[in-house]
Amino acid sequence: CLTDNFAHRAAVRHALANDKEWQGKFISPVLPLIEKQHNEVAYLVPWCQLGKPPKEGGVYEWVTFQMKPGGPALWGEAFQAAINAHINTGYTKLIGVFHTEYGLLNTVHVIWWNESPDHRAAGRHRAHEDARVVAAVRDSVRFLESQQNMLLTPLACSPLK
Q: Biological process GO terms, please (predicted)?
């Protein structure tokens, strides 16, 4: 959920908590299906604008990087260089880079758009043969604790379909 600030987020949560229709049609039916929930607050990093897919369709890659403690002051420049190296290959479209404020700190989420899973795999393979990408990743990976990638296919109701 993209919100302007914590006051806006609190107002939305308060409104939902008092919305009997929302509780009855959404919350009540899904509660038995929820085993656990993870919440965090993340912000779009200052050097990134929220992008849009170039067309409908395609798939999204959600990449979560757990960086070493120290925050962007320690690893921000190297991380940004690695992102820019991937952008410069042109095989993928950056949608956004987000850094956690609350939740597991030093977590960065990057969302990429690709035409298809096969297009993503071929482009990523080419990118990892690009000396600029290899150098940038090598420099940034020294700050990396872990990485997790997920491929997401948007539903018809998604604003990012």
A: mitophagy
Q: Would you say the C-alpha torsion 51, 44, 60, 133 has a positive or negative sign? A: positive
- Torsion over CA: 113, 117, 123, 125 (sign): positive
Each residue's pLDDT tens digit, 85-123: 999 999 999 999 999 999 999 999 999 999 999 999 999
Which pTM was predicted?
0.84
Q: Which helix (H) or strand (E) holds 59?
A: strand 59-67
CATH 3.30.470.20 fits 41-152, yes or no: no
Q: CATH 3.30.70.100: which residues of the chain?
A: 41-152
Q: Residue 110: count other Cβ atoms within 10 Å of its Cβ.
A: 22
